[in-house]
Amino acid sequence: MYGCEAWTISKQTQKKLEATEMWFLRRMLRISWTAKKTNDTVLEEAHTTRLLISKIRKRQATFIGHVMRREKLENLVTTGMLEGKRSRGKQREKLIEGLADWLKAGKSLEAIEATKDRKKWRTMIANAVKQGT
Fold first, then answer.
1. What is a single molecular function from GO for this protein (predicted)?
2. What does the pLDDT look like over 67-105, one tens digit per residue?
3. Would you say 75 and 67 are in contact if contact means Cβ atoms under 8 Å apart?
4. By the 8 A CB rule, do 96 and 79 touch?
5. Dist CA 55 CA 99 (whole Å)
């Protein structure tokens, strides 16, 4: 998880991370891959929920809050406000957009504005972690 603060997590990447997490749980609980157990029953046996994605998103959110409050070069790079032409083709997902979806903040601008108030930003992160999305 080193450096996960800078990852952009697409739906495909999220599925791969969730599959890896489930594989880890099955290995720790010594459940054979031929055993006919659903993922829900494995999660119940482990007495846990999906933790990996929520941990990554929480770390990303705290990092983005820190970067946005500093208002330096990192802020410009993260928000994509640099001068120049955009590349051709489908544009890549930005880290801010992924976090705005996770926090259910609507648009990325609302998430950026919320980072200015540290208390509000922390409550948004805590609510998103509680919901487990």
1. endonuclease activity
2. 888 877 777 777 666 677 777 877 777 777 777 777 777
3. yes
4. yes
5. 13
- Terminal Cα-to-Cα distance of the chain (whole angstroms): 19
* pTM of the model as a whole: 0.72
Domain assignments of the chain as residue spans, ordered by start: 9-50, 51-83+92-133
Report d(CA 105, CA 127) in Å as an integer.
12
Q: Which one-letter amino acid corresponds to residue 42? A: V
42-50 own/partner pairs: CB under 8 Å, 24+ apart: 49/132, 50/18, 50/21, 50/132
Tokens for 45, please give them.
Answer: 């046996």
Q: pLDDT tens, 35-71?
A: 888 888 888 888 877 788 888 888 888 888 888 888 7
